Amino acid sequence: MSATSWAWLVLLFPLLGSITIALGFRRTSWRFAGIVGTGAIALAFVCGIAALITLLGESPDARHHTSALWEYASVASLQIKLGIYVDPLSVFMILVVSGVSTLIHLYSFGYMQSDEGYHRFFSYLNFFVFSMLLLVLAGNFVLLIVGWAFVGFASYALISFWYRRTTATRAGIKAFVINVVGDIGLVLAAFLIFQQLGTFEYTEVFAKAPQVFHTNEWTVTAICLLLLVGAFAKSAQLPLHTWLPDAMEGPTPVSSLIHAATMVTAGVYLIARTHVLFVLAPTAADIAAFGGLATLLVAATIALVMTDLKRAIAYSTMSQIGYMIVGVSIGAYSAGLFHLMTHAFFKALLFMAAGSIIAAMANEQNIDKMSGFGKAMRFTSVTMLCGGLALAAFPFTAGFFSKDEILAYASARGGMYLIFTILGYFGALLTAIYTFRLIFRVLGGKPCAEAQELIDTGHGAHAEAPFNPATGETEDTDIGFPGAVHHFAEGSPPMKVAMGILAFLALFAGFIQVPGVDETITHFLDPVFADSPLAAIHPTTSASWFGLLIGGLISVAGVGIAYLLYVARPDTPRRLQERFAAVHTFLYNKWYFDEAIDILVVRPALAVGRFADNVFERIVIDGAITGGTEETVGRAGVIVRTFQNGIVRTYGLFLVFGAVGLALYFLIQQS
Amino acid sequence: MEAVLFFIAAIGATVGAIGVVAARNPFYSVLALIAHLFSLAVLFLLLTSAFVAAAQVVVYAGAVMVLYVFVVAYVGSAQEPRWDPVPGQRLFAGLLAFFLFVEISAAVLSSGLRALGTHGPDVPAGFGDPAAIGTLLLEKFLVPFEATSVLLLIAAVGAIVLAARRRESINRERPLGEGVASR
Amino acid sequence: MNIDWYIVLSALLFTIGAIGILVRRSPMVILLCLELMLNAGNLALVAFSREVGNGQGQVFALVVMVIAACEVVVGLGLIVAIFRRRLPLDVDDLRELRG
After folding, report:
1. CA angle at residue B82 from B78 to B84, to 5 degrees?
2. Nearest C-alpha of chain B: how many angstroms from C34?
3. Distance (Å, whole) CA A543 – CA A495
4. In DSSP terms, which residues pair with A467 in a beta bridge?
5. Which of A342, A442, A567, B114 has CB 3.0 to 4.6 Å from A398, enough for a Cys bridge?
6. Are residues B86 and A656, on separate chains, in Cβ contact within 8 Å?
7. What burial class does residue A604 get, using C-beta atoms within 10 Å of its C-beta: 0-12 exposed, 13-18 middle, 19+ buried?
8. A78 by DSSP, 3-state: which?
9. Which tens digit of pLDDT belongs to each residue from B111-138?
10. What is the pLDDT of residue A563?
11. What local confidence, expressed as pLDDT, does residue A469 receive?
């Protein structure tokens, strides 16, 4: 079978899975939903492997295929096909997405077991994977937008999964609205592309673009900036990032899949896919890179003071995606995508571990209340440690190789781009600190009450009444809220399997891309990026290893500082907080971004709406136009009513009057 | 001679009409109408329509007016009050009727029918005789003739139904004050 | 006399009848005025019959007479019924059908 046929199958299985689970939700058991859901994605992964093998069997230059099912629209010069584009980049993304998704489905099989909405969860999750694969496989901008929008919807549906929680629904709406802002950018970019180049198909666009556009011409810069709006919204970069921390209202598998491994990487994929355009608009590419850098640093600083476990990990995601955006914007395409892959592994793992701990804490998410789980939950803490080491880029973990490769490339490019290297290392230091802050606080120290209970009895703690971790208000355990029983890894084999595989990958997946040794990913993705002059820039092996050395030192230093602050001298954080209270407040309030957006965007919009309602709607339309008409008709009616006095003789008078008039008319006519 | 008869009959008809409209007592109106009908019969004769004139006297003045007299006698002749409750009714009625008259006259007199200005064409001897009318009724206008008979039957039945005493209202004597409209 | 005199006379009688209907309040008299109008019509019909020269107008006039008779019968029946129910015989007071 050809690679495109396998690709169609990759798309088909999750869609079928979603529909099957959705249709049979009343009559099938929860096990059915879980098995079908996980199996569908596993099948997609297998087909992805098959596509990879088929692709590898061809010569590197021939590894790009398009395939169209049918034509959407064929109007005048507009040709839109339901077509996919299979090349190393899309196959890479398929494997990452479906692989990590399979493991997360496996995790959810155990984690969501007591939830009343189990079928709905798996249906939505499968639909999400389908949309993400559609986004990645799309062969033209229209289908990309379709996948983009579907992914946004799936994210909304899953964030608001516990729909009776007001905080969850509000978070879902916030995510959706900000995503729509991104969608607008993307759609406008697509329109501009069509207007300038006359086509939506990737192959044609990327072939024509270098011929039609001059470097830094305003049109291509505009297109790239609009694409950036879309990418930044989806990947939660500054300033469109405020939805990601709130998106943690969704169940942990959702956070793990969508907001760590897959959906938020869509922006990175977009920039990588349209790299031809970004090469033609270096200004836009630089703006993207600086945007990523800014996000990287801001998010890292916020993560230093976050007390909600999931939100801290969310800010970490934001920061790491900043690295990826920097990577693909400055030309380190394969490095950026490699970091995407490794990040998917260790971030998904971290979320899974966090979910396990939160379950053991009876849904409490505040790390101030957690400690000592290292002794209480061995498996979870070991895997969490693996993920943390990878995130902190500890030597020879996966994150070590991927993150430092980006920074080495930046220094190889030289000039202005050394800023990225220096600040990137600084961000790595912060990353190591905040990662191990979490690990030392949650896993180390004396066991808290819940951990103690786990050690003593072997099963998890239960709160007296189920409550919303964000606001503290009580809930029940019926549909729309989390279930009664919280499942953690130690008690659930599927969760253990998933976390174990990811831990292994987080530690050892880096070895497929060792500079100067194998570099499989770079070689695999080479044909895709061969047309970019930036891909020719290559750090020397010695420079790469030097960068790795520095990165390793920084990582160890970060772990050491965290150890100092949170284990050796636990008093220090509190004293620092008192001394730098203003800074702490600023960071704790997330740099006041939410408030800024409220003042700059939300309030003016509401004011416009209120004006439209009070003035325009009430006075002009209701008052003058409809009210005026109504009044006129009413008055006319009153006048006419006086003629209806019920007396026959009056009616006779009108009759004669009419006859007289008519006769007069005919007389005049005749003469 | 013919003109004199015409004027006498015309004046009689007009006076009778005005009498119908103007008389306060309905009985006097009926009498005025009878006079009017006789004048009209004379006019018909002047127009060589003998049968119609005879029918006018026998049917109209004879039967229909007698019916009127009976009903007036039964109902009683109450006088109408002078004052008209609807403002402007009398004024406008007069005005409009006058206009109507003017218009119809204008329409007729200015029409292109040449024969209107003459006595009319010469007619055969039996014009307007019962024989002529009868022939027409039974040959050309048979269907209208039959339909009119049916109409008469329906009218007679209808009148009886309308004016009949209800059987129940005799047995159930409703006390005065309920369902009685006061003046 | 020329035929147009008869027509004008017919018009005059018709309008007198119209005035009567619009002005009088007793149903009896209104019916009588109705008779006036019908007779005016009859006069016009017969005049035209003479003017055209065939008897069709006269047959029409006879039919009108019959119809007038029927209508009078029904009308008077109504008046008797109204009188029997002790309602006022005044068209201004009989207006329950007002919409």
Report:
1. 110
2. 11
3. 41
4. A474
5. A342
6. no
7. exposed
8. strand
9. 777 777 777 777 777 788 899 899 888 9
10. 85
11. 72
Question: How confident is chain A (671 residues) per 10-residue block, as mean pLDDT?
Answer: 85 92 84 89 93 86 79 73 88 92 91 85 93 92 93 92 88 91 93 89 87 83 92 89 88 86 87 90 91 92 88 92 92 90 92 88 80 82 91 88 87 84 91 90 81 74 71 72 74 84 86 77 81 77 84 88 81 78 80 82 87 79 79 88 81 91 89 73
Place of tokens 């960071």: A587
Closest by CA position to A173, among listed A186, A157, A151, A149 = A157
Widest distance between CA atoms in chain A:
119
DSSP secondary structure letters along A505-519: HHHHGGGGG-TTT--
Give, as one character, the DSSP assignment of residue A383: H
pLDDT digits (tens, 9 = 90+) for B13-49: 999 999 999 988 899 999 999 999 999 999 999 999 9
Q: Cα A512 to the chain's mean position, in Å?
A: 26
* Contact between C39 and B40 using a beta-carbon 8 Å cutoff: yes
Helix (H) or strand (E) holding A38: helix A30-56
Q: DSSP letter string over B41-73?
A: HHHHHHTT-HHHHHHIIIIIIIIIHHHHHHHHH
pLDDT at B182 over 50: no
Distances (CA, A) of A337 to A231, A414, A524, B173: 15, 21, 12, 106
Q: DSSP 3-state assignment of C67?
A: helix
Q: Judge contact between A408 and A551, C-beta under 8 A.
A: no
* Contacts of the segment A419-425: beta carbons below 8 A, 24+ positions apart: A419/A293, A420/A289, A420/A293, A420/A326, A420/A330, A421/A547, A423/A293, A423/A296, A423/A297, A424/A293, A424/A296, A424/A323, A424/A326, A425/A550, A425/A551, A425/A554
Q: Which of B21, B103, B110 to mutate to test the interface with A (most CBs of A within 10 A)?
A: B103
What is d(CA A104, CA A112) in angstroms, rounded to the nearest whole number? 11
Mean pLDDT of C75-88: 87
Q: Which CA distances in Å does A24 have to A36, A39, A118, A520, A568?
A: 11, 16, 12, 43, 56
Q: How much is the pLDDT for A351?
A: 92
Contact between A392 and A400 under an 8 Å Cβ cutoff? The reply is no
Chain-chain contact of B89 with A659 (C-beta, under 8 angstroms): no
**B residues 150-179 lying closer than 8 A (beta carbon) to C:** 151-152, 154-156, 158-160, 162-163, 165
Evaluated on CA atoms A453, A458, A461, A462, the torsion sign reads: negative
Q: At A209, which helix (H) or strand (E)?
A: helix A202-212
The pLDDT value recorded for residue B183 is: 43
Decide if A37 contacts A126 (C-beta within 8 A).
Answer: yes
Of A508, A502, A17, A513, the residue nearest A261 (C-alpha): A502
Residue A477 CB coordination number (10 Å) = 15
Measured CA to CA in angstroms, residue A109 lies from A22, A36, A488, A505 at distances of 16, 11, 12, 21
A114-123 burial, b for 16+ CB within 10 Å, e for fewer?
A: ebbbbbbbbb
Size of interface A-C (CB pairs under 8 A): 24
